[in-house]
Amino acid sequence: MQIFIGAIGRLKKSDELNLCNKFETRIKNAGAQLGFTQFQHLDFDEDKSPQTQIRKTQEAKKLLNAVPKGALIVALDENGKQFTSQDFSKKIASYRDDGYPAIAFLLGGPDGHGQDVLNQADLKLSLSKMTWPHQMARALLFEQIYRAITIMSGHPYHRQ
What we know:
Blueprint: E1 2-8, H1 15-31, E2 38-44, H2 52-66, E3 72-81, H3 85-97, E4 102-107, H4 115-120, E5 123-125, H5 134-153
Helix pairs in contact: 1-5, 3-5
């Protein structure tokens, strides 16, 4: 199964980028033995339109065009479902076990997702009831994917 992360907004040199890179390496190393054979992370420039709806629509097109064929789509959304780390791990494992070729996590721009992404999402996921800057939300997502993989493997990274 491929894990794909598509995000609006570029991560420049920063602590958040360093964290994402650190967890990307860990995801690739730990995930391979559990059937997560590929990991891809793409980020896209924010649309420059002054109108919010046009901007969100254009950003949604960028994200959806990048989603791997046959992927299950998870849209990060402030009104989405929240999971414990253990339940998130079970959810990802069930997608893998159900034979999906890929899972695509999509992060919208500062104004959120365009309606096309929300309509096509198989799951809307909220990382917290709190609002996070997009750079930090991305780093949190990377960490939670890694944590989910370690839970699946029985690695002691996650403690209860």
